[in-house]
Write a structure and sequence with these properties.
With about 120 residues, the chain is α+β, with helices and mostly antiparallel strands. Helices cover about 30% and strands about 20% of the residues.
Length: about 120
């Protein structure tokens, strides 16, 4: 299966979660902003790692990461993710990400095109 990788866009943190080595019982949770890991994993021992792609990282038990991510999914109480993000800088980053990723969609969001070049 190879290494596992995931971006996790939460309304109070942006995290990258990777498997540090194949079959590891730990996951490496990484963040670009100070405090994001601790907001999600309160007792994490976070290291600051200059010269790496993510400045902050913590190694956590896989089952803990799965449990916390599951709790976040179970706790969703909004109908629009971007509107649930209070931090303006994080909100604006997600809005740009939304726009970039919308290019993958066969028909652009809010388009009146039916996908065959014909307007509806």
């Amino acid at each position: 299966m190879g290494f596992l990788r995931m971006w996790l866009c939460l309304n109070n943190a942006f995290l990258s979660i990777v498997e540090p080595s194949a079959g590891s019982d730990k996951l490496r949770v990484r963040a670009r902003r100070k405090g994001d890991i601790e907001r999600v994993f309160a007792n994490a021992k976070v290291e600051r790692t200059t010269g790496r792609d993510y400045l902050y990282r913590a190694e956590l038990p896989r089952d803990q990461v799965a449990r916390v991510v599951s709790q976040h999914v179970a706790g969703i109480d909004y109908n629009n993710f971007k509107d649930s993000v209070a931090d303006k800088k994080l909100h604006d980053a997600y809005a740009r990400f939304w726009s970039i990723m919308s290019n993958l969609q066969e028909i652009r969001p809010y388009s009146r095109d039916n996908g065959r070049g014909e307007l509806l």
